[in-house]
Amino acid sequence: MNPLPGWRAAFRIARRDAVRAKGRSALVVAMIALPVLGVTAADLTYRSALPTKAEELTADLGSADARYRDQGLGPVRLEQMPDANLWGTYEDSPDLLPQAERKSVDVPATFPEGSRYLTERSVPASVTTRHGIADARITELRIGDPLLRGRIELTDGAFPKAADEIAATEAFIEASGLSVGDRVTVRGPQQHYTLVGAVELPAELKQKSLFALPGAVIAPWKKSSDDDKEILPPQADKLEWLVQGPPGEGVTWPDVLAANEKGVVVASRQVVLDPPPDSEIPMAAQMGDFGDGSAELAAAAVTVAAMAVLEIVLLAGPAFAVGARRSRRQLGLVGSCGGSRGQVRAVVLAGGAVLGGVGAVAGVGAGFGLTTLFRPMIEDFTGRRFGELTVQPWEILGIALLGLVTGVLAALAPAIVAGRQSVLESLSGRRGTRRSSRVLPVVGVIALAAGVAVAVYGGISGDTTFVAGGSVLAELGVLGCIPVIVGLLGRLGRRLPLTPRIALRDAARNRGRTAPAVAAVMAAVAGSVAIATYTSSSSAEEEYRHQPNLTSGVAALSTTDTAGKAELPRARAAVEQNLPVSGDRADIGRVWAGSDCFVYYEEENGCGTLELVKPTGKAHSCPLKGEGARELAPRLSAEEHKRLMNSPACMDENFTMTSFNIDSNKIVVGDAALLTSYVKLDDPAAAKALAEGTPVLLNSSYAKNGEVTVKAAHIYNDRDRKNRDRHPGKAVTTTEQLKVYVAPDRYAATPSIRMVMPQRTADRLGLYSEEIGSVYPLDSEPTDAERQAVDAAIKLTGDNTYVMTANSMRQGDDAAILLILALFAGVVTLGAAAITTGLSKADAEADLTTLSAVGAPPGVRRSLSGFQCLVVALTGVLLGTAAGLVPAVALRLTDLRAALEAMREDPMQSAYTPIVMPWETIGLLALVVPVLAGLLAAGLTSSRLTLARRAG
């Protein structure tokens, strides 16, 4: 028997039914089209924004054939991979000569005969802008040459043609406030240039760079001083060559090997696009297969696609179910005319195929349209121009097929139900007696328990595959339990008012449309809560481990060397004028012994030392260091380990940076103002001690019986003329016992300072001291504009001072992630609740008519819709929150395992791995979103109903 005529009729009936029920059809098409639109746009954007090898080469070479690089090793034989990213010397190469003895390489001599080339070299510089001073990289390159087309494009003005002309990227021009025709000064050599053009780097739209002709910047910079190393920044890039090979030949692999023989590495377009076989690559034998992570990427893509299909099926399935019920008389007529159960199912499945196909086509078309429309915005966001709109036909076809299959899958369950319905029930409009499956909840509970166990095992063992698999299994288990949970909701409304009681009972009675919507909300919320919980927990861990460079709420002005002392008055004025300073400044000084420790000599002990000697004994030693520490650390709880880590004895055992230009002893010269503004020690006794010449010790583990031991090694180097003249004599080591004021233990964690020494004490001990900066209390964290302004003002005072604030933890990205997750889950929750409410109204029209007929107030219809929406949203959010904790906790167990292994190697490493609930996100989802969904549903529902004749 040929099945095609039956299916042809089924599709014809489905098409007519879709046209007849335009609202419901549009809803299903939109639900299928939206994910297809998103995936299509993402695929087009990814494929277009991801540069091909040819586009990467154009971004680096322009239209040139190759880039030649002298690696600075001299004419030593090298070997390289075809892409030039990996290179090295041959194993049988002789030892490299010292830097001073290496001969230069004549790189142009290695070019193929008949080649043409451009030279390129960059240098970091500080240049003037309309706002002040900005750091930028200046590249000496003849960018007007046709060899650079595709890499650098002119957008305004002209290319530089003279030595006093310069061009800039649009990103630099926008940030600096300059425009074509303005004057730009390169600080250092004080060379002046005219900005003649604006250019764009298609592969790096956000790059802030300047371009000048070869020899226009670096050569004058060198000539401006007799000491080139002092003037030219050491970060200046080496000279490189962009080469265009002989016409029709390019730069071949033999040309690359010939250059390698002379110590030159070559990135050739021809070689990269058409690499030679491994047998011709000397370096290939040393390289292994590192993998590219494509398997993991494919697995992630499959998982995302599966979740998208599940979301659509869960949301679209109830719409098909309601549509089948509203068309049950039509389906009954099919059966009464001799149609089999299979043909009844075919009608419903054909409806899914029709709407799925329309949704897929609409989604793909809208994806192309939106990608084209928002292409400039996407390019600005990604920071690179699309070479072209890349379309992979098979991927687009697969995405469209995914939409079609999703529509059919969403109609599968309603089709099975419709096929089982008797003809009499269909024609009479009665639904018959339906019983919930008793097997599904049992299977769901077993799957939930097994999934939690597998996820926990994966977390403990450190296998993220088990974590992912167990989490999905647990979520599916909760999915299986949802019908029973929804059924129990009806019993909760016994003591509630009329409308919430009806809403709960309606949800329990119509589990076919309520449970999938609850499941869709649960799936979206579970993923959001899992990521939000893991993100919040990781942020708390990072904040715990974070070591600030300065005390929060202050700005520190410091000098880079002794020459900066003369710049301090003007630098202080710049800080006070441009930052939100809230109080008086506190000056700070460094102290040292012997030779000036700003100067480090090559010979051993070329600089004097000054240190606080920690007393011996158990009371002064850290339990997490030395013998027995590896056995002790794993037995400690996180709180106990944290307490020990923050104790004075252990505080200095790990490396801690010093933000001021002081030695690792962290002894500074200061007065009571430094205590109150920076240390935050508001203690009259401490201030009095400093005034009387008694140092204030912040770390009590260095004190014994109220005294500290200060050991000074006065070493005078012959080149240290200043100190030699001030304190002639032989090297000597002195040890002093100083009475100190010991601050409470909590001040041991003060960044960069261990002891504050009065000036009179430093003089009495024969130590050198020098003012190095100031500390300012701030009203608020400086804005970006204030930072730029103060940096510009500081640079105007000289190059020997700088200002900094505390490197506080930046929570902006995490907060944005949590907000996006909450918005995503909230939108899905609102959508699922709205869909369910709309279906409830369509499905229960007869019940609403009956309510109105028996005298129910008009507002009952409105409030009933609100409570129906609230029930779905709130139930899904609560279940999703519980399900989302499973993967989050399991992943944190994985992190805990790694932290414990690190602690066994180094007991000073903390195993603190907290699980922090994102209460703001959960509160938004559990309280705000359901209430908002209920209010919107109630507000958009008409309270008046035109009574119609009841059937029966």
UniProtKB/TrEMBL annotation:
<feature type="transmembrane region" description="Helical">
    <location>
        <begin position="514"/>
        <end position="534"/>
    </location>
</feature>
<dbReference type="InterPro" id="IPR038766">
    <property type="entry name" value="Membrane_comp_ABC_pdt"/>
</dbReference>
<dbReference type="Pfam" id="PF02687">
    <property type="entry name" value="FtsX"/>
</dbReference>
<feature type="transmembrane region" description="Helical">
    <location>
        <begin position="297"/>
        <end position="323"/>
    </location>
</feature>
<feature type="domain" description="ABC3 transporter permease C-terminal">
    <location>
        <begin position="304"/>
        <end position="422"/>
    </location>
</feature>
<feature type="transmembrane region" description="Helical">
    <location>
        <begin position="439"/>
        <end position="460"/>
    </location>
</feature>
<protein>
    <submittedName>
        <fullName>FtsX-like permease family protein</fullName>
    </submittedName>
</protein>
<keyword id="KW-0472">Membrane</keyword>
<feature type="transmembrane region" description="Helical">
    <location>
        <begin position="815"/>
        <end position="835"/>
    </location>
</feature>
<feature type="transmembrane region" description="Helical">
    <location>
        <begin position="394"/>
        <end position="418"/>
    </location>
</feature>
<feature type="transmembrane region" description="Helical">
    <location>
        <begin position="344"/>
        <end position="374"/>
    </location>
</feature>
<feature type="transmembrane region" description="Helical">
    <location>
        <begin position="869"/>
        <end position="890"/>
    </location>
</feature>
<keyword id="KW-0812">Transmembrane</keyword>
<keyword id="KW-1003">Cell membrane</keyword>
<dbReference type="InterPro" id="IPR003838">
    <property type="entry name" value="ABC3_permease_C"/>
</dbReference>
<feature type="transmembrane region" description="Helical">
    <location>
        <begin position="472"/>
        <end position="493"/>
    </location>
</feature>
<feature type="transmembrane region" description="Helical">
    <location>
        <begin position="922"/>
        <end position="940"/>
    </location>
</feature>
<keyword id="KW-1133">Transmembrane helix</keyword>
